[in-house]
Amino acid sequence: MNAWILEKQSNIEERPLKLTNIPSPVPGKKEIRVKVLVCGICRTDIHIAEGDLPLKKSPLILGHEIVGVVEKTGEGVKSFRPGDPVGISWLYNTCGKCEYCIKGKENYCPDFQCTGWDADGGFAEYITIREDFALSLQGINMEPEDLAPLMCPGIAGYCALKLTEAERGNKLGLFGFGPTAYYVLKAANYLGIEVYVSTRSSSHREEAKRNGAVWVGNVAEENMPCPLNSAILFPPAGALVEPVLAYVEKGGILVLAPVSMSLIEIENYSENLWGRDVRTLYNVNKAEAEEFLKIAGQTGMRMGRQVFNWEELQDAMIQVKKGEIKEPNAVIKIL
Ligand SMILES: NC(=O)c1ccc[n+]([C@@H]2O[C@H](COP(=O)([O-])OP(=O)(O)OC[C@H]3O[C@@H](n4cnc5c(N)ncnc54)[C@H](OP(=O)(O)O)[C@@H]3O)[C@@H](O)[C@H]2O)c1
Ligand SMILES: [Zn+2]
Ligand SMILES: [Zn+2]
Q1: Which numbered ligand comes closest to the C-alpha of 151?
Q2: How many domains does the chain have?
Q3: Cα(233)–Cα(261) distance, rounded to whole angstroms?
Q4: Gap from CA of 108 to ligand 3 centroid (Å)
Q5: Element (H, E) at 126
Q6: Which of 35, 111, 220, 239 is the residue whose CA sits 20 to 30 A from 23?
Q7: Is residue 289 in a domain?
Q8: Is the pLDDT of residue 49 over 90?
Q9: The domain containing residue 17 runs over which residues?
């Protein structure tokens, strides 16, 4: 099969990925082989390519926003047949035996394996995965290009939303309005949660309003109109934690979405932290991914995406790094 492989990490401008032809992976017991149709580019792919995150295998195929169809099933596969539409997210495999896995909290499994990091990902014609971790896309009437971003920002956003414990009628604040926040807004609307969005960008403000936010503004310039039951902070800016907490009422929950964060300092513990919970989003789990995809199928979540051809992968990654793509998401068409 044709695949883009990473052997040695370097700046993405140096084009560290090589286009090669390698044997297609063979589906083992309870595994399926998926013909990849499209795969989205995530910032994490760039972090791995450049060495901000260590290389866990070499050569490695990046990519974890995968949409495709089952092409072949291994021995004992029960839930999929050739031709079935499937998605693959960051969740590639877990041990299945530890306390976390048994409780359905496999996002904390010490053996959590990530697609496109611990195992080969979607910038290739085929990928194999255990049937338990492939996500059925049956009945979701959306183009593969629109489905791809659901696999990372979509699912991760929904897991962050679950951590807030927000319920119908609650007030939820979203601070920063990138792709992840967009999907949270759509899912929260569907669940009857009122969403208050703070963003610096006027185009993000318009998009949030168009998609059902109750209030849109920028807390650097004006206050939230009311206290919040819970909130999600998206940018990795630790200095924002205390001001955001100040909007969350007692008994409320603040979820920090980023995978890295600058220094967090709480100056006024009694006023701004005491009585609130702070949680972090740590990987994703399957039950929530499936719940989210069901909601996505019913609501039709479509956000801007720029589609690139197979041979343009590295140009697209460079553009994503530089913030030069015209849309919030970049998606690669696989051969
Ligand atoms: N834990 C996990 O497993 C997991 C998985 C996926 C994603 N995530 C995290 O989710 C977060 C959001 O992801 P995303 O794809 O939506 O990324 P993103 O577009 O970078 O979202 C962050 C948003 O925050 C705002 N922002 C950035 N820097 C800021 C600053 N210095 N001050 C104030 N606002 C700032 C921007 O929004 P405005 O321009 O609208 O203000 C930006 O769009 C990321 O931090 C990512 O690490 C976590
Ligand atoms: Zn990602
Ligand atoms: Zn486990």
Answers
A1: 2
A2: 2
A3: 11
A4: 7
A5: strand 126-130
A6: 111
A7: no
A8: yes
A9: 2-142+302-333
